[in-house]
Design a protein that fits this description.
Blueprint (H helix, E strand, L loop, with lengths): L1 E5 L5 E6 L11 H7 L3 E7 L15 H16 L2 E8 L1 H10 L5 E8 L12 H20 L2 H8 L3 H7 L6 H11 L13 E7 L3 H12 L5 E5 L7 H4 L1 H12 L5
Parallel strand pairs: 2-3, 2-4, 4-5, 5-6, 6-7
Antiparallel strand pairs: 1-3
Helix pairs in contact: 1-10, 2-3, 4-7, 5-6
């Protein structure tokens, strides 16, 4: 796992938590370069999804969050201005916020989803699930990217630019195992100024997220036209930086 930093001369910090199966380089570079004009940008490259560390193996959302917190404490003194989580990165962000060692001014979960996490009474069924679901993920990643693009409301080209196809079977298997019995940390939204972004192709996820508002979880929800899942960061980097700046200033309602 590595952290890549840009715009270190800037006073405000922005940490990016990437999505599952996603490569940050070069897909996120246009956004990173734009954001680094105003922010000290830190990109966390997860174990198993970083071309600079081909032998790395993804362990779990909880482990990636722990390493992010260690970085924030060591390098930023425990204070982070903006935490930006893309898709699965929103879950990593939830875990980061729950750690009392850090203070985050603004949290944005872009493409935040609430997928039901499985639980199993018998180990034999759990093993079958892990094997089958891992095989399905690998197949979609390497052979059926068009299906994934359609499901996420994005173009095949956009998906191809985003995916990290060198991920190992072990990383995928570990990710599936770590989902079993996982409990979302929704309460973390209440610990800071929080925002949830969705594209217009994510109406199902947006409806699920709205249930959290009715349960007393506090955040501002924004939807964007003609945008697929986790696509906002790729479509218009300049606009997204402006949205993040407005959120940080409390001007995004």
């Amino acid at each position: 796992m590595k952290f890549f930093e840009y715009g270190k001369e800037n006073g405000k910090s922005l940490m990016i938590e990437c999505g599952y199966l996603a490569k940050w380089h070069p897909g996120l570079l246009p956004f990173v370069e734009e954001a680094s004009k105003q922010f000290h940008v830190i990109v966390q490259a997860y174990d198993g999804f970083n071309r600079d560390e081909p032998d790395g193996v993804f362990c779990s959302v909880v482990e990636e969050a722990r390493m992010a917190v260690d970085f924030i404490v060591k390098v930023l003194g425990g204070k982070l201005d903006v935490l930006y989580g893309i898709s699965l990165g929103g879950m990593v962000g939830n875990e980061i916020l729950m750690d009392d060692r850090v203070r985050v001014h603004t949290f944005i979960a872009d493409g935040y989803t609430i997928m039901p996490m499985p639980t199993f009474r018998f180990k034999c069924f759990e093993k079958l699930y892990v094997k089958g679901y891992s095989a399905l993920i690998y197949s979609v990643l390497t052979k059926h990217q068009g299906f994934l693009a359609k499901a996420l409301g994005r173009t095949r080209e956009s998906i191809r630019e985003s995916l990290y196809t060198q991920v190992s079977h072990k990383s995928i298997e570990n990710s599936v195992i770590s989902e079993i019995g996982y409990r979302y940390k929704f309460e973390s939204f209440n610990k800071t100024a929080s925002y949830v972004f969705h594209g217009s192709a994510e109406r199902g996820a947006a409806r699920k997220v709205h249930k959290l508002l009715r349960k007393g979880i506090r955040f501002t929800h924004k939807m964007f036209k003609n945008t697929g899942h986790a696509e906002l960061v790729h479509k218009n980097p300049q606009r997204l930086v402006s949205l993040i700046e407005r959120a940080y200033n409390g001007e995004l309602h």
